[in-house]
Amino acid sequence: MAKSKGALDGLFVLDLSRILAGPTCTQLLGDLGATVIKVENPKTGGDDTRGWGPNYACDTAGNPTDLSAYFMAANRNKRSIAVDIATTEGQDIIRHLAARADVVIENFKPDGLMKYGLDHATLCAAHPALVYCSISGFGQFGPNRAQPGYDLMAQGYGGIMALTGDPDGVPTKVGVGIADVMCGMYATIGILAALRHRDQTGEGQHIDLALVDAQMAWLINEGTNFLSSGQEPVRRGNAHPNIVPYDAFECSDGHFLLAVGNDAQFTRFCDVLGIAEVGTDPRFVTNQLRIENREALMGAIKPAIRALPRSEVMERLRAVKVPCGPIHSVGGALSSEQAAARGAVVQMPRDDGADLRLLANPLKFSATPVRYDRAPPHVGQDTREVLETWGPKADKSS
Fold it and tell me: Residue 42 and residue 86: Cα distance in Å, rounded?
């Protein structure tokens, strides 16, 4: 039976991005069926993340390849071409591909592609229907536009590090490049919206997206907490600023997570742990009161939790529908029954016959399922195919 077409089948994406934000976006577009051409500089060995070990896919002799685990996380369903855009020939190739493209995405510093004639103003003028997405650290305008964009700097500048970590510890970044990943998600949404507009009007446009802008946008409730009160939020570790109790708690044999979302749940929580008097204590009967008396409440409930094993606590709470859960390691999460049932890990065959295990796309479509057609490529492995099919060579032979 023939494979179902992806939702973005027929879309042609020219990817001039590297590292994580742009590649996250283009991998998602590729998963949805788009043809993605990833341009890599042969002089530097391609995307920087190819060298970000220590974990690599090995060849059949056991030698590490240019497929680092970091690179593979964001680069499946793409064709890689090795092109030096600093050369006249390379610029000609990119212009030919851009003429065929629906989307161009890049993450050079602002004005960084102008000297090559590959900037948004030049290409959009030549191709009015083109959707051109620029990702940078601080955007195409503003006082910090020339500053480089790294996930760590975006997390620091954008405020999330001030909220993350132990109350008495140092400001802490999120354990993965979340500013990059979320920026890539915003880029995907922006591109799809621009394509919708293009399909209705024939008019393309330029999307200016900054890591720091995206970071500030997903401060969500803590951002609006500050805007509403003028008071700086503080680090609370695993606790929640607006819900109590909502935290990681220590049992006799480890930790678990508890998220009491309303007053009825709090009463049931207290009842099953044998501290019903805490549930009726006037200091704790509403969430607002529990917030105001957070420290006193923690002192009242922690001993009861600490006296019991984790499995028993969670069994009791689940029986009365109080939200709780384990704290998995990465391996524990990816090997869980839930992960297996939902297909959280996908195996993709490599060109040498070996299988790669990758994180799957979480989207589940009823009509246009996610595609896993192309394993992450080696640098330039598709250069000949792409140039013969879509590049200057194709024009000359047609």
Answer: 11
- Distance, in Å, from the CA atom of 49 to the CA atom of 46, rounded to the nearest integer, reads 8
Residue ranges and CATH numbers for the domains of the chain are: 12-218+343-397 (3.40.50.10540), 246-328 (3.30.1540.10)
* Tally of CB atoms within 10 A around 279: 18
Asked if 180 is an active-site residue, the reply is: yes
Segment 274-297, tens digit of pLDDT: 999 999 999 999 999 999 999 999
The one catalytic residue among 15, 31, 102, 180: 180
Sign of the Cα pseudo-torsion (395, 33, 210, 170, in order): negative
Q: In whole angstroms, what is the distance from residue 245 CA to residue 248 CA?
A: 9
> Which pLDDT tens digit goes with each residue over 97-140?
999 999 999 999 999 999 999 999 999 999 999 999 999 999 99
In Å, the largest CA–CA distance within the chain is 84
Q: ∠ CA(187), CA(344), CA(153), 5° rounding?
A: 40
Q: Which long-range contacts (CB under 8 A, 24 or more apart) does 284-288 make?
A: 287/243, 287/244, 287/262, 287/263
Placement of tokens 């503003």 in the chain: 142
